[in-house]
């Protein structure tokens, strides 16, 4: 315990976090010095990201029809590039990632550069991965660094309309408004939760170009430390042209249903925009989480019950019952009075579902991976 009665942060003077809630819960040596150090680290991360953006080469197909290219970014100042993948391996990896539109973030320091080949993207790649001109963007996240985010846009695009959707409270909300400053092109939407607990954790971007829209869903917050030196996952849709089509997975309809849960006029404008575009090539299932009590025909629209429905209709065969379920989390809430009430009960019934299966099927083995702060 420190002099102020708070438990010491396990990262000590190396702590990178600036969330006021974290600073109130844990003690840091020399708070003013810690604040200055965080500011310097944020500045260095932003400068490093700028350097990558300047050196990135983003390949595209024909104007308006390109898919986001594999991460062919080279960090020329990084000497850790001795291990190279074979050309055949790079091609196979690139084709696999492109097929599913599934990528990882480009890690700029700390790993061998070969792990970035073919499968990794920077946020700059995501935003500027087409020849079409960007018109506007909608950003949803848990954490934001608006100064750094703007640096990931081309200079000519930094004053274009941007909608920022957040669920921050207290000092964090005030800080976000201060980050916006005098940038009148940035509109702020507060995600209102109808329940007394939980946070807005969606991490998604919707990008409007002259020739279509693109949706990106990721595990990364919109802050430099999540994109600069962490392995995060991201799915990027193809560039969806104007039209009314939807995919056989109902991606468009599910996206509209999810966004409608915000009950926001500004987000309603984006919903109208989505309706005007053909998303028939978005052949993935979208499983959103909307707080509240969902009954009737909405019962299986969100969360793990939506996953249960999809697995029952399109999941693996029953012989997959020997597969374990591996879950990863950065934070975890209440799991019930004991392991069998919710975690090993209702939740695992959904994750254990197979095609044509029933709730009486045996539950799978569960393995959880996460970070626990002591």
Give an overview of the whole structure.
α5 (about 145-150) links the parallel β3 and β4 (about 160-165). Residues about 40-85 have low confidence and may be disordered. An eight-stranded mixed beta sheet has the order 2-1-8-7-6-3-4-5, sandwiched between helices. It has a two-stranded parallel sheet with strand order 9-10. The radius of gyration is 22 Å and the shape is globular. The protein has eleven helices and ten strands. The longest helix is centred in the N-terminal third of the chain and has 25 residues, at about 30-55. It is α/β, with parallel strands linked by helices and about 375 residues long.
List keywords for this structure.
374 residues, alpha/beta, two-stranded parallel sheet, 13% strand, globular
Question: Any chance you could write out the topology, listing elements then pairs?
Answer:
Blueprint: H1 20-25, H2 31-55, H3 87-100, E1 102-105, E2 120-121, H4 123-128, E3 134-140, H5 146-151, E4 162-166, H6 170-180, E5 186-190, E6 204-209, E7 212-218, H7 224-228, E8 233-236, H8 251-260, H9 265-275, H10 303-314, E9 325-329, H11 342-351, E10 366-370
Parallel strand pairs: 1-2, 3-4, 4-5, 9-10
Antiparallel strand pairs: 1-8, 3-6, 6-7, 7-8
